[in-house]
Specification:
The complex is a heterodimer of chains A (291) and B (419).
Chain A (H helix, E strand, L loop, with lengths): L2 H32 L6 H19 L1 H22 L9 H23 L15 E4 L2 E4 H23 L1 H11 L1 H6 L5 H22 L10 H15 L4 H21 L4 H15 L14
Helix pairs in contact in A: 1-5, 1-8, 1-9, 1-10, 2-3, 2-4, 2-8, 2-9, 3-8, 5-6, 9-10, 9-11, 10-11
Chain B lengths: L2 H25 L1 H7 L2 E7 L6 H20 L8 E7 L3 H13 L5 E4 L3 H14 L2 E4 L16 E3 L4 H16 L3 E7 L2 H16 L3 E8 L7 H10 L3 E5 L3 H12 L6 E3 L4 H4 L9 E4 L8 H14 L5 H20 L4 H8 L17 E2 L6 E2 L2 E6 L12 E7 L25
Parallel strand pairs in B: 1-2, 1-3, 3-4, 4-5, 6-7, 6-8, 8-9
Antiparallel strand pairs in B: 10-13, 11-12, 13-14
Helix pairs in contact in B: 3-12, 4-5, 6-7, 12-13
The chains are: A mainly alpha (291), B alpha/beta (419).
Chain lengths: 291, 419
């Protein structure tokens, strides 16, 4: 492997990892705060891509990048306010079943509305072609995905650590009872958090649309990978999701170089090893809530 | 009492009606049966990475049934299509059983995944019900695991690869190939055939990768190809993977010639203007024969979009079943099988290719030409469907269709005796 090829491999792995990070962040935030494992995450990723497909002709790609995640996020907030909220006091399994059912309804709904054929979604003209980085040329659009993910992560960190709502979110995920005793209503915050998690998944869908075809099953593999990433990173851990997403991206990517047949299994092997050595995941903390 | 005569009258009428019905049944069984439609079962995928093709297959078969019913059906009976999702091999077998045992279909057609088709093929052979494979390409279906009750209107990998491969080697002079293959029955079979062709032509294999079905990111495979410097990238992928791969291939700025062992237009259309390469296709909606153009126009009128190759496959398969029923004057599967062996498509459709197409008697493969298509530059498109240009018919008009099919001495097909 020449240095240029190696660099390209690492970059490809980074892009793959960036998408995993986005998916895992949404899952992780929702789980940390609400305690629900959102099985509909992959389907919402797909819905993001389809919404972008519908919008981009009218408003252009840059605006789509903002509008599509917001629309899907609003749908997520509606789902939380009308359905999910009723189950918080029930067995956690019920929330899981609800999102599982939701995933099927969403995927089938997408089939009914947009049909079974993949939709054409070209790489936006601004990002077409390759960037020249000295000895290495790399896809402009993939570079853009990396930059966009970086900006989003920075924005999220600022939001969680520098804003009053962010502080409530962090506090609420550690000890909801205490937050309530302090006279803060968690209801709107939970709705917001679910919407936020969902819109990040939708954003990952929009970013993937020009590379992977827009088709009803596009979220299945990414959705599954996101669960693996969250498990490795530690349930509910923000930093864990980032580290683990990037790690899984590299592992999958490099295993394609050496032995493509095991690429798909590689992330599961990694998960098994990490769970054996550290059952709560890389950055998972020992939280009373889950013990 | 005023009710008595009424009751007596009611009883009389009922008895009369019952007798009449019974008599009719004895005297005119054919007329009574004529009310009952002839059911044809269809198995196509609606989910997963082959889902889009299933939708086209259903539309093609539905159109065939509608055409036949407009002409009065078959043997004076209407046809009815019952479509089920083939999903995966396990589900496909269960759905086949349901079609046979519950719906009492006279025959099944469809299938896209070779893995599903192999499983259903074994099942229909046990149940002794005719199956026409309209979409699965593995050679195995017509060779090692061929069955008396299974026919194929879909071309097999050998037919496809011979069509594109010989053209590539002759016209493009490419000899250093890199293979990218879908990791399931179809891909493996296609890789075997393509390798055989390359070896026979003294070419070199510079690399080969297997990718799981449903892969969404091909960037790593593409980087490997770039580093290996082949003069041709030959993909043995299927379904949505083809869309993703070809899109990302162009996006990565690859200029190495690309070709494939098969292409489904349903998955080539979404690639759009970045589509490059040469492919073998069983049928293309701009094929210039009067019957073909007329059918494409009818399809567009009915469904609002041009038919893809799978719509063509299922359309042809339904007509083949209808022709078999007509010829056998029966709906019993063993008679249909006998009628189809050596049958040349004629009457309700001739296969739209402007030359006679015949089911080979000893392996049940429909012999037919393939078309080599080249991706068209966007500036030459009439509309967004106009992405391919037919640049060759293989074997050319006048040449024997056997030329690209599996030769008898290389086939492992042993049809079960008819019992």
């Amino acid at each position: 492997m020449t240095p240029a090829v190696l660099a390209e491999f690492l970059l490809n792995g980074l892009v793959l990892g960036a998408l995993y990070v986005l998916m895992a962040l949404g899952l992780s935030i929702i789980f940390g705060m609400i305690g629900v494992i959102n099985f509909a995450h992959g389907a919402l990723f797909t819905l993001g891509a389809y919404t972008a497909y519908q919008l981009q002709g009218a408003v252009g790609f840059p605006a789509t990048l903002v509008v599509a995640p917001i629309l899907v996020g609003v749908l997520g907030m509606l789902i939380e306010a009308t359905l999910l909220r009723r189950l918080y006091l029930e067995d956690p399994l019920q929330g899981l079943l609800l999102t599982f059912g939701l995933a099927m309804v969403l995927e089938q709904g997408i089939r009914l509305v947009w049909g079974l054929s993949p939709k054409q979604f070209d790489v936006p003209a601004t990002f077409a072609g390759a960037l020249n980085l000295g000895p290495l040329t790399y896809s402009r659009y993939r570079s853009f995905i990396l930059a966009a993910t970086g900006v989003l992560i920075a924005g999220l960190l600022l939001f969680l650590h520098k804003t009053p709502i962010g502080t409530i979110v962090r506090a609420g995920s550690r000890d909801p009872t205490m937050v309530r005793l302090l006279g803060i209503s968690l209801k709107p915050v939970l709705t917001l958090v679910f919407g936020l998690g969902v819109s990040i998944a939708a954003l990952a869908g929009v970013l993937s649309a020009p590379l992977a075809g827009v088709q009803p099953a596009m979220g299945v593999n990414v959705g599954t990978a996101a669960f693996v990433v969250v498990t490795i990173g530690g349930l509910g851990s923000f930093l864990g999701a980032i580290i683990s997403g990037l790690l899984v991206g590299q592992v999958v990517s490099l295993s394609i170089y050496f032995q493509p047949r095991v690429a798909e299994a590689s992330m599961y092997v990694l998960m098994a090893v990490i769970l054996l050595l550290r059952p709560r995941g890389l950055m998972g903390e020992r939280w009373e809530k889950f013990e | 009492m005023a009710t008595h005569p009424d009751r007596r009258k009611f009883l009389q009428t009922t008895v009369l009606a019952a007798t009449a019905a019974a008599t009719t049944d004895v005297l005119f069984p054919a007329i009574v049966r004529a009310q009952e439609p002839i059911r044809i079962g269809q198995l196509v995928p609606f989910t997963g990475f082959l889902g889009a093709i299933g939708e086209y297959g259903k539309q093609g078969a539905t159109l065939a049934v509608e055409e036949l019913n407009e002409r009065g059906g078959v043997m004076g009976r209407k046809l009815e299509l019952i479509t089920e999702d083939e999903a995966n091999p396990g589900v496909a077998v269960q759905k086949a059983r349901k079609l046979i045992e519950k719906d009492h279909v006279v025959a099944i057609e469809g299938l896209v995944s070779s893995a599903s088709c192999l499983a259903v093929g074994d099942e229909v052979q046990r149940a002794k019900v005719l199956l026409i494979n309209a979409g699965a390409n593995s050679d195995e279906i017509r060779s090692k695991r061929c069955h008396r009750y299974v026919f194929s209107t879909e071309g097999c990998n050998t037919q496809y690869v011979n069509a594109i491969g010989n053209w590539l080697i002759k016209e493009r002079k490419v000899s250093r190939w890199y293979f990218l293959t879908s990791d399931y029955a179809f891909g493996h079979d296609l890789l075997r055939v393509a390798r055989g062709l390359l070896t026979a032509n003294k070419g070199t294999e510079v690399g080969s990768d297997l990718a799981p079905t449903g892969t969404t990111d091909f960037s790593q495979y593409i980087t490997k190809m770039k580093a290996a410097k082949p003069d041709l990238v030959f993909h043995n992928l299927a379904g949505a993977d083809v869309t993703n791969f070809l899109k990302q291939y162009a996006e990565a700025g690859m200029t190495i010639e690309v070709a494939g062992g098969v292409i489904d237009s349903a998955y080539a259309w979404p690639v759009g203007e970045s589509l490059r390469g040469h492919f073998p296709i069983i049928w293309w909606h701009e094929l210039n024969t009067p019957a073909s153009l007329a059918w494409a126009a009818r399809y567009i009128k009915r469904w609002g979009r041009p038919p893809d190759n799978q719509a063509y496959g299922d359309y042809t398969a339904v007509h083949a079943i209808a022709q078999a029923i007509d010829k056998a004057k029966s709906t019993e599967s063993d008679k249909l099988v006998t009628a189809l062996e050596g049958h040349t498509l004629a009457g309700t459709t001739d296969g739209l290719k402007g030359r006679p197409l015949t089911f080979r008697a000893w392996d049940h493969q429909l012999l037919q030409p393939m078309y080599v298509v080249a991706a068209k530059d966007k500036s030459k498109w009439k509309d967004k469907w106009d992405i391919f240009e037919i640049i060759g018919e293989v074997p050319p008009k006048g040449a024997a269709l056997e030329a690209i099919a599996i030769p008898k001495d290389q086939s492992q097909c042993q049809l079960e005796p008819m019992s």
